[in-house]
Amino acid sequence: MRIELDVNGEQLEADVWAGESLLYVLRERLGLPGSKNACEQGECGSCSVLLDGELVCACLVLAAQAEGHEVVTVEGLAGAEGLHPVQAAFARAGAVQCGFCTPGLVVTTAHLLERNPDPSEDEIREALSGNLCRCTGYAKIFDAVKLAAGT
Amino acid sequence: MEVVSPRTLEEALRLRAAEPGLMPIEGGTDVMVDLNFDRRRPVGLLNLNEVPELRGWSRDDGLLRIGASLTYAQVRQRPLADTLPALAEAARTVGSPQIQNRGTLGGNLGTASPAGDSLPPLLIERADVELASVRGVRTLALERFLLGPKRNALAADELIAGIRVRPSGARQTFMKVGPRNAMVIAVVSLALAVDREREELRAAYGSAGPVPGLVTASTGERETFPELVAAAAEPIDDLRGTAAYRRHALRVLVGRALERCWA
Predict the structure, then answer these.
(1) Which pLDDT score is estimated for B14?
(2) B79 vs B74, B108, B123, CA distance in Å?
(3) Which of A31, A97, B7, B239 has the most CB atoms around its CB within 10 Å?
(4) CATH code that applies to domain B171-262
C-alpha cells in the first residue's frame, strides 16, 4: 500500500507492507536512519520520535497510523543555524560513547525541555526512563540535559 | 494484509462486523510487538486512532464515561487523576513516557493480560466495560469481562468503546513490584481502596492469578485483610517470580496500602 507521511515538515510518499512500523518506513523506505532500530518492542527508546509533538517509540507506531499526523525525527531537530541546543550540549558534555542511543536521548531531551525548561533531577530521570544507554552510566547524559536546560 | 482507518465509530463497527479477522489496533504497544516479531499475521488491521467517539472522557451525574482511546498520559492528568487516583498512579508505572503516550485503557482491556496495570485500579472502582457492535451497546462488569490470561468476553463483531465507572471517592492507591521503576511488567501489583462510606475494603491484585482478581471485606477486617488477599490470589511460578514470592509480596503490599489509605 502507498502511504503519505509528513516527516520533518516534508510530505513524503512510500510504498509499504501494511504491517510495517513507522521506524521501518523511516529507515528503510525514506532514507532517515537517525532513529535507531534495536529492541523493536518499545523497551529501549532508541527510535524515539515526535508524533504530533508527543514522544513515542517509532517501532510501536504502525506506519499507516502516522498518516495525517506530523512526525519529527532526530534529523529534523538541527536548524539552518546548526545543531539543536540539546545536540550541542550532548557533544560538549561528552554524553556520547558508542552513540547508538544518542538520537533517541536527544529527541527525548528536546521534548522534555520544550515542556519543562528547568527540570529537577527526578523529573529528568523520569523523562529519560524509557531510553536505555549501556555505555555511559547516564551521569554525563544528565550533565548534558542540565547543560541544555541552562542554554 | 491491509490497514483500514475508519473516521467514525459507526464505520468502525461496520468494518468489524464485515471482517472479524481485522485486528483492532489503538496505541500499538502490544499489537506492534507481535507484528514486529512475526508472532501474528492478521488479515488486516483496524486502526482506531481516528475514531473521535473513542477519545476523551465525560461526566454525567457522577457517572464517568472514559473513551477506549484514552492514553496513560491522559489518565495521569488532572482532574481525571484526582477522581481515579489509583488508576493515575498505575498509569505512571506503565512502561515509559513513550509507552504512556501511546498505550490506551482500551488496549489494556483488549490485551487482558494478568499483568495489565490499569485493571486492578478499575476493579476496585467496580468499573464496567462498554462493548459496541452493529447490534448495539452492552456493558459488562470488568470482573466478568476478564476470562483468562489474554482472554476476554469481547465478541467477534464487538469493539471496546469505553469504560463506565462511578468513582467511589474512597482513599486508594496502587503498588507494583518489579526490578526497576520503568519498563517493568509487574511481578505482582495491587490496587486497594478503603471505602469508609460503604465500610468496605477492596483490593485487586495483578500478576498473581489467571486474571486480576477483586477481594473485598468489611473495614472491621483490617487485621486479617492482607492474609485474605494473599490467600485469594492464584499465582504461578514463571520467569518473573515464584508463586510463593508473589503471595508474600501481596501480603506485604496490602499491609502497606492499608497504612497509606487508612487515615
Answers:
(1) 98
(2) 10, 22, 20
(3) A97
(4) 3.30.390.50
